[in-house]
Design goal:
Blueprint lengths: L1 H12 L5 E10 L2 E9 L6 H17 L9 E6 L9
Parallel strand pairs: 2-3
Antiparallel strand pairs: 1-2
Helix pairs in contact: 1-2
Length: 86
């Protein structure tokens, strides 16, 4: 699943300096949730997540077969932590 999402999405979001780190389905509160985790060499701010989410949503709308029978799509970034205090 991750490979399929990477192939569809990474080229389209690379100008935002982000890439797909993981993609998986899990169950949360009785719902099937399709999770897409983004990563970057830099800290990803909310504006980049929003821009990437819009691009990814458009792509997945055209490729509904990937979403299977999920109830929700969740796109978020890896947490980088506080680099100054490590």
């Amino acid at each position: 699943m991750k490979k399929e999402v990477e192939i569809l999405v990474n080229e389209q979001i690379k100008e935002l300096d982000v890439f797909v780190a993981d993609a998986f389905i899990d169950e949360q509160e009785g719902k099937k949730v399709f999770n897409i985790v983004l990563d970057s060499e830099k800290v990803i701010d909310l504006n980049k997540i929003t821009a990437a989410s819009k691009i990814i949503n458009e792509i997945l709308d055209k490729n509904e077969n990937i979403l299977e029978d999920v109830d929700e799509l969740d796109i978020y970034s890896k947490e980088k932590g506080d680099l100054e205090n490590e």
